[in-house]
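Here's my example:
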Amino acid sequence: MTSTLAGLFDFLVYFVVAVILVAVYLGIYTLATMHNEFALIRQNVISASTALGFSLVGFALPLGSAIVHAQGIVDLLVWGLVALSVQILVYWLVRLVMPNLSQRIAAGEMAAALFLGAASLSAGIINAASMTF
């Protein structure tokens, strides 16, 4: 039984830090976009929840990779911030291709939301795979 619980403390530490990073991610990402995701989601705008949801998965994938590869909490924090930065960069790059991206998402247009979501998810997968430290 004690060997089963040996990793429980480390699990809790990494899990709590990851949850905090997710909260920080959601806060910063939603400030960086030109639309208010949470207000739109409260209004049942599915495009906003789709784009934010895929973006969140695109962040969680490299965060999970960082947890697996991290040599400690500092590594996790650094690579979590890298993952956050990549997702914000993806949003701004998609805006270059689609300058009215936020207006389209706010208007409920799923094509714009799915394109942003796919770009975010793709970047997250590539980001996670690149974490070989």
The two ends are 32 Å apart (CA to CA). The chain has one domain: 2-130.
